[in-house]
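Hi U.,

Before I forget, here's the chain from the pilot set. I'm dumping it here mostly so it's searchable later in email.
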Amino acid sequence: MMKTKYKLFTFFISAALFVTSCGHRKTSDNQTSENNTPADTSKKEKNIVQFTREQFQSTGIELGKVQKVKLSGAIKVSGALDVPPESLALVSAPLGGFLKSTHLLQGTFVTKGQVVAVMQDQSYIQLQQDYLESKSQKEFLETEYKRQQELANENVSAQKILQQAKSEFMTISAKVNGLKKKLELINIPSTALEKGEIQGTINLYAPISGYVTKILVSIGAYVNPSDRMFEIVDTKHLHAELEVFEQDVPKLKVGQKVRFTLGNESKERMATIHLIGREISADRTVRVHCHLAEEDTQLLPGTFLKAVVEIGSMETPALPDQAIARFEGKKFIMICSSKSNVDSLKTTGKNSAEYWFKMQEIETGVSEAGYTAVILPNGFDSNSRNIVIKGTYDILSKMKNSEQEE
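Structure:
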């Protein structure tokens, strides 16, 4: 029994020593692996490049800081050419009918009052017939009403008969007047009709002078009163309709100048803000109405445009144009740190570099007189940061080449 206990005790002691030995060996191996990791095999932080003092001086890099510069403030917006409601007219058939003929084509210029289409329908004939019959009946009832008045004055006829004659005369008079107005809607003069000239067709006339921009019907088609047949636009009073984001609207005032270019041309045109909308659309923009400095009848409504609204000079953080690099559709500046403050930028291991440059993405605003307004990230200390104002692209080139080599 004692011998068995001794063997068990010896077994547990041996197992404990074995586990301790393995654990020590594993820890030693880990420490050796960590301590023996070469400094040059560690991964460098992205968007950082290092320069020696000699490289810094030979490249001609210049450092500076963000400055407060007075620039002509401007807002970049988009929009389109448009016309006021009185310069856009839709032609339709007031009482409906079949389109018999038209000479219009898209782009045709028409003058106000010019015949643009000829319509035909049986209802036009029926309307004229009803008018003539009602007018004849009116004449008869008018005579009867006057006769009953005379009889009533002589106490020959009862007042009831007089009232009935008056009622019938007033009813037919209202009907005649209504039919006359309907004839005027379809451009049939009652004077010609009273001579017995019934016509089976009617003319449609251009309500304004301008260019035909849309033809929405074909010859032989039946047109309802609510259908649009033609669209005519007077291009003499085109204006620029801008879409301005709500945060920029407080910067706008009536009378401010606007520079814009159309999507199909490169020359710059001028306009003036005439009216600022009072409604924010679903895409958080406000419409701004601008009058063109020079009217051009050859321009087309709906043409896309890009505009710059001048909002006056204002002091804003800015950098020289050459301090800003453009890469892969984004804009960057280079922040420089010397040996005294590179703890947050320097890579691990030994290094003989004296300057470290980190690429920082920014947004930009208006550019003028060699300076560009910059929008810096939140928390960026522009007073203490040294920024490369010359040689930015040289640093960017070395940075990207280094990344490719790695």
